[in-house]
Structures are given as structure tokens and as C-alpha cells.
Write a structure and sequence with these properties.
The protein is elongated. By secondary structure, the chain is an alpha+beta fold. β3 (100-107) and β4 form a beta hairpin. The strands form 2 sheets. The chain has a 6-stranded antiparallel β-sheet, with helices on both faces. A two-stranded antiparallel ribbon has the order 1-2. 40% of the residues lie in helices and 19% in strands.
Amino acid sequence: MPGTVQSIERAAAVLRLLAAAPNGLGVADLSNALGLAKATVHGILRTLHQVGFVEQDHSGAHYHLSDAFGRLGETYLDPNELRSRAINWADSLASRSGEVVRVGRLVEGKVVVVHHVFRPDDSDQDLDVGTTLPAHACALGKAVLAFDTSGAARPQKLEAYTTRTIIDPVRLADELAAVRAKGWAGEFEEYTVEIASIAAPIRGLGGLVVGAVAMTGRIERICDSRMRHRTDLVSMVRATAEAIGRDLREDS
């Protein structure tokens, strides 16, 4: 059997010490308490600060647990941050594909659209930012629902929007397992007749899925002659999701 991971043990020890010190602790305090080099402690603190678990005081000399550490069950990423990191990549995807592009995140079992790029053809379109979509009935939703481990986000009742909407919980579970296996989600007339969609999860720090990006359009443009989602479009969507995630991880 593999042993424990030392770096995680050390990080846990730092968090325990900070939890017991309401006034915070400095690098030297933690170094002395744990018998670790200051450089090692500083590296642990820098990482914990990066993921939002610890904060520094105004002087920068002391560290303490952040409010976010007490809310681990909530999403750690602000929707505005997701949108700001996604804008350029989503806009580029819409320009290259000629299709509608949306970025969304899972909130209480539904997908909230945080960014929406119109199809670049000057047609009449409504802005969807702030609207919610049923997670089980669209690719955008399935791409994030597949990686939710709480179970609370899974809709209790699967409402039908078309004759193709998945309303059987067992079938939905199989569909989400397939999404995890292949790394992207597809939708074919499940939410709107004659419309298909492709989505991919966006991974933030540590690989956590914080949202998804989706391309949506008429079936004849999104699918091939055999009604399969076009592989070139799937690759474009997945590359866009990875680029957004990379920006989130590098700049967090």
C-alpha cells in the first residue's frame, strides 16, 4: 500500500495551528512549532493562500485562516472571475465556429449562464447572461453535473423539455458517466428541437470543475451526416475549456 503524502500532512498541520491561533502566526512561529525550514513553511503558506484557505494581515507578517476555509461546501470561484477569464477564449470560439457560445456554472442544481457570445451573423438574439438552464437537459449542464460529488445538485425531478430529454435517473447517471470518461458532453434536441450542443468542463485549481463552456447551434451545423457531434467542433470546445482553466490556474 502507498504511504501518506508528506506535503499534505504538513499543510494539514499548518491549518491546525492557524485554527488554534485567532491572532494569526508568522512563518517563524510555524517553522519553530513544526520543526520545518522557513522556506518550506513559506511554500506551504503561499500555496494555501493561493487556493484561498489562508490570508495575511495588513503587515504581511502573520497568517490566519480565511473565511473561505469555513465554507468549503460552497464554490470557491467568484462568477465574475470565471467570466473575466472566459471572455476572450469564448469570444474566439464563437468567431471561429460561427455558433453561440455560453459559459456557465452549477448553482443549486441548475446552470447559471455567466457569459454568452452571440452567433456572429447579425441575427436577432437575446442575451442569456444570468439566466438558468436545466442541468440534465443541456450539454452545458451535463458537463458540470458529471463532476459534482455532492449529489445535492442532481435534480430530484427530471423535467421533459422535448421527447429526447433524459428523464430516467438511471439513464442520466449512465450519460454522466460517459461524460466523465470522454471529457465532454453532447446534447441533441434535449432542450430545444432542432438544436444540438457540445460542452466541456472548465477545471480550476487542483482540477476542480468550476464551470463549463458550450457551443450551441442547429443540428445540421453541430452534427455530421450521421447525426454525430462533429469531432472538429468537439476539439475546439475542449481546447477552449482547457485554455480558460489554464488561465484560472495560472492567475489564481
